[in-house]
Amino acid sequence: MHVVGCNDDAQAMHFMDDEGGELCDNVTYLGKSGLFTSTSGLSVAYISGLDGGSKDDFSHFSESDVDSLKQKVRSAPNFAGIDILLTSPWPKGVSAYGTELKHSLNNESDSIAQLTLALRPRYHFSGVEGVSYERNPYRNHTVLSGQSSHVSRFVALADVGNKEKRKYLYAFNIVPMKYLDKDELHKQPADTTECPYKLKVDSRSLAQQAPERNAFFYGEAPMSGQKRRGRSIDCTYTDYSNSNVHM
After folding, report:
1. Residue 94 · residue 196 · CB < 8 Å
2. Residue 71: pLDDT band by 50, 70, 90 thresholds?
3. Which of 34, 41, 112, 214 places its Cα 20 to 30 Å from the Cα of 62?
4. Are 30 and 24 in contact (CB under 8 A)?
5. How distant, in Å, are the alpha carbons of 88, 91, 144 from that of 198?
6. What is the average pLDDT across 206-213?
7. Type and span of the H or E element at 182
């Protein structure tokens, strides 16, 4: 099991430094932020803590932390997005155009919305609000304008054992995007909506960080007429407390 960091200084005693490490047998703290790639090729970006704005301590991330993660992930060769993003705060405005949200939120983050917009995760999981919510998928491109892209899905999980019996488990089957051909990766479900987030930085700066290439795969592109094949991965996500998102 892999976990992101604490959202409260009182929990800091249960973690080590920002670099991460093994908390106990089979439980690894990933660290403050980064990109984890499993042996199967699944790409998982993560950032720990709550949005601190300019505040940067063990239980908060700063805008510079978010910018650093953006640059790290987007600088990967042939960047086209990531499979999974893990954050504690919800991205601000996630319900726009999508599934109705019936709960008030305490930890929306515009920085996380901008991070999500930049990294284009296929799945984005958050858990700190303690409520269950699954948004219908949204596009990562503008219809009839520019290159097509894959869709993103946002899923929030409730606390384990909550009295309201809200959903705290999410099981799904996923093939890492590095093994999918363009047509399969870019399928648009019937209930797909426009992207709920609006870019708040100069788009040219992002383009300079990671120029688009005519490729949709990590690594070398397959020969004409061939498709890369990879085994699917069964994943289960659980939120064991209102403080952390677990994988």
Report:
1. yes
2. very high
3. 41
4. no
5. 20, 11, 18
6. 51
7. helix 182-185
